[in-house]
Design brief:
3 strands
Length: 103
Amino acid sequence: MSLQTTCACLFLSVLFCAVMLPGYALAQTDSLPPLVHLDEAVILPGPSIPIEHRTQPGSKRYSRLEKRVIKVWPYAVYAGLAMDSLEAELQGIPHAKERKAII
């Protein structure tokens, strides 16, 4: 193998491999630091779907709905938390005009 081929193989292997450390991922961009610390992922309980709906004949429509609900579930949880914090903030404001200005 020639030196040029060896260098090309080494370059490609470095280019396409990523070093994975526990809790870290290698970022290959100019604007980010090379190592980015990843926090723990919090897994929230998802929607519970009764088993009889999954096994009924003609439940293709229901399984499509289930897939769509599971896809938007994290966004709904986040929106609920945002609404709760906004409601708590609005509780301390006595005048409706000021509350409307915040919303």
